[in-house]
Design goal:
- The chain has about 675 residues and is an alpha+beta fold.
- It contains 15 helices and 37 strands.
- Strand 31 and strand 32 form a beta hairpin.
- The protein starts with a helix and ends in a 5-residue tail after the last strand.
- The structure holds 1-deoxynojirimycin and calcium ion.
- The site of calcium ion (CA) has 5 residues, from loops.
Length: about 675
């Protein structure tokens, strides 16, 4: 708003003669900020005292004026009757280093608009909104300062809206359903979305790509997106057992609401760095005790049901069976061995009912001290497992002792699990009553941080399954290394329907925008429980490059890797930590080609996956160092390969010399993929 107008507003506010409800004119712009390269702009306006924001890209509307505010318990809603008190814009340009990740260095270049609003009626409450505008996205959040009469806010609902201007197509999964985040992605016109989880990805008819998500979800409820009418969505906070959604004392701030904006699907992935940039810096200091690495484990056999979590004749987590995995890991250079079913509690109906779990001692047939020694002697580390069956307070009551036990035996990564229907997590109140919570409600956002912080004290990294969604908190707590939070490989074993060939090309442009996923690839046997895995063999290898995680499972059985030595060679070589990442090509749900630079050396890797359609393409290798020659070792689909039938195993390994000027043809079979390792030729240096 022009300075003169602003002064007038302030004068009106000060003299108390402002009559916001008299204003019948159209919304008035009160503040504006552009991204550093002037690509995006955000405008704040007041519509009869209601705060609105709008986003344009090169002047074209992307988010039409959208309302902001809160529905409160026991207080008037915080939405009407506002006037601008003051606003300020500042610029920020900083490059920071990730301890591990897809990119070693991340640039945070944005302009920030901070605006203070105050009610002008009977109530005089103050609300701050902060916008950070990057060239490839926008983040904004609310701050409620400490003020007279507002010591606490009890939020029944957040009234933030997202009125998407251009006609768009959406890729989304439903929110607020029993299976948490484990749904197949749907592609529909945006006007057919119901209530979606974030990240929700959009392509406008003009070919702009957007992804809606959030950053720094701390002490707050996760945000779902509910379509209100046409292409207008509203934040729908995950419920809490209390009836309200969030309870906080002031001063408080919400998570950042984020909108990634890019002009290609490929560029959308890099724009997800915005989520990291909107999180607080590393709070743990030196985290070199966490090492990105690959692992194997007693896992796929459980999903095939050839072994069991429960004790008995098929028990997987026995001392002798675990030794077999440790030997395999030692022989092939895998750092970790995950063992599920190592503790009491699995014998009955454990899902949605974890009261029998004991995390402080192993079952009689699992020699934890002996195995951890056996592993250590071979340079291998056991990976721990805490399946709660949804009994979260029960788990918390043992958390300290459980982590101490693992720390004592050198277990420095723990996979946690929350298998229970949405809204069915057990929480015990101080008075002993048990209530039920959602996986992404405020209470669980705090639970996960309690676990991550307790683990950090003991130098343990955490990998939750059935988690709360990733909102970039790995920046602040780098021991929160990975998570599930989508349909992983287990659905290839028993999913009905199983993961279809397009699944990973969907995940890359949706779930993976949020952060690392413990997808657990590498099923080289391509066979689930009575159903084939719907990919080619080469695609299983490509997944190691495409679906990033700093802990990467080689999920198949040792005997299956023995039968597929060619595939194992790639899995052994591929790193779990990167210097740089480039998305070379892709379309949401169709295909993606990713190149990544090994953080520990000069090698590059390429992974390409496609959906049920075979594809021929050519990629420029201009990411390679100019003037240097590389040997490209290529694991590609055989000429006859197809995800259906025995030809899914057809794989060809070949090598050729390439350099930065090479245009490399890629041929992907239907449901197929390709994995490439680029190694510099020694003579060049
Ligand atoms: C579901 C997890 O996603 C899976 O990896 C695990 O094996 C089971 N829960 C048991 O904890
Ligand atoms: Ca799961």
């Amino acid at each position: 708003m022009p300075k003169a107008n602003r002064l007038l507003w302030m004068l009106l506010v000060l003299t108390g003669i402002s009559r916001w409800n008299d204003a019948t004119a159209a919304a008035e712009t009160v503040a504006r900020v552009e991204s550093p390269g002037k690509v995006l702009a955000v405008e704040l306006s007041l519509d009869e005292g209601r705060i609105q924001y709008a986003v344009t890209r090169f002047g074209e509307p992307l988010i039409a004026p959208s309302r902001m505010g809160f529905q409160l318990r026991n207080a008037e809603k915080l939405q009407r009757g506002f006037a601008l008190v003051e606003s300020a814009v500042r610029s920020h340009d900083e490059t920071w280093e990730q301890p591990w990740g897809e990119w070693r260095f991340v640039r945070d270049h944005h302009n920030e608009l901070r605006a203070r609003f105050r009610e002008t009626g009977r109530a005089r409450r103050t609300l701050d909104v902060v916008f950070r505008v990057f060239d490839d996205g926008v983040g904004f959040r609310y701050e409620i300062p400490r003020q007279d009469g507002v010591d606490e806010v009890i939020i029944d609902d957040e009234l933030t809206e997202f009125a998407i201007a251009p006609k768009s197509t959406a890729w989304w999964i439903p929110a607020g359903e029993w299976n948490r985040y484990e749904y197949l992605y749907q592609k529909t016109p945006l006007v057919e979305v119901g209530q979606a989880h974030t990240p929700m990805t959009l392509r406008t008819d003009d070919g702009i790509y957007l992804a809606f998500h959030e950053a720094a979800l701390v002490d707050y409820a996760g945000m779902w997106l509910r379509r209100v009418e046409e292409q207008r969505f509203r934040a729908q906070l995950a419920p809490a057992s209390e009836g309200w959604k969030v309870r906080r004392s002031t001063p408080m701030q919400t998570p950042w609401r984020t909108i990634q904006i890019a002009d290609s699907a490929a560029a959308l992935y890099a724009s997800s760095r915005l989520t990291l940039n909107l999180n607080e810096p590393n709070a743990l200091g030196d985290v070199s005790w966490f090492q990105p690495a690959k692992y194997v484990g007693v896992w796929w056999s459980l999903h095939l049901d050839t072994e069991t979590w429960a004790r008995g004749p098929k028990h997987g987590a026995t001392t002798s069976n675990t030794r077999r995995y440790i030997d395999f890991a030692a022989e092939h250079g895998f750092r970790g061995v995950l063992v599920e079913g190592w503790n009491p509690g699995w014998d009955g109906q454990w899902f949605g009912n974890g009261y029998d779990f004991d995390f402080t001692r192993p079952t009689d047939d699992f020699d934890l001290p002996g195995l951890s020694r056996y592993a250590a002697e071979r340079g291998v580390h056991l990976i721990g497992h805490h399946e709660t069956g949804g009994a979260v307070s029960h788990y918390e009551s043992q958390l300290g002792a459980a982590l101490d036990l693992y720390a004592k035996h050198g277990v420095d990564v723990v996979k946690t699990g929350y298998v229970a229907d949405g809204g069915q997590l057990e929480r015990r109140l101080d008075d002993g009553r048990i209530v039920r919570e959602w996986h992404d409600g405020q209470w669980m956002s705090n639970h996960h941080l309690r676990v991550v912080q307790e683990a950090a004290k003991r130098h343990i990294a955490i990998n939750p399954h059935e988690p709360i969604k990733d909102t970039g908190l790995r920046r602040t707590y780098p021991n929160w290394v990975s998570r599930e939070g989508a349909r992983g490989m287990e659905y290839a074993a028993w999913g009905n329907p199983p993961n279809p060939p397009e699944h990973e090309a969907n995940l890359f442009f949706t779930r993976l925008l949020a952060g690392p996923m413990d997808f657990t690839p590498g099923i080289v046997s391509l066979q689930g429980r009575g159903q084939p895995v719907e990919t080619t063999l080469a695609k299983q290898l490509a997944l190691y490059v495409v679906l990033y995680s700093p802990i990467l499972m080689a999920a198949d059985l040792p005997e299956h890797y023995a039968a597929h030595g060619d595939a194992l060679t790639f899995i052994k070589a591929v790193p779990a930590d990167w210097q740089d990442t480039r998305v070379l090509a892709g379309e949401v749900g169709d295909y993606v080609v990713v190149a990544r630079h090994d953080r520990a050396g000069d090698d590059w890797y390429l992974g390409a996956v496609t959906d049920e359609q075979g594809r021929n393409m050519e990629v420029a290798l201009d990411f390679l160092e100019p003037g240097r020659q590389y040997t490209a070792t290529i694991w590609r689909d055989g000429d006859a390969a197809h995800w259906r039938g025995d030809s899914r195993f057809a794989m060809q390994i070949e090598s050729r010399v390439v350099d930065a000027s090479t245009r490399l043809p890629l041929r992907l079979a239907a449901g197929g993929g390709q994995a490439i390792r680029f190694q510099p030729l020694q003579a060049e240096r």
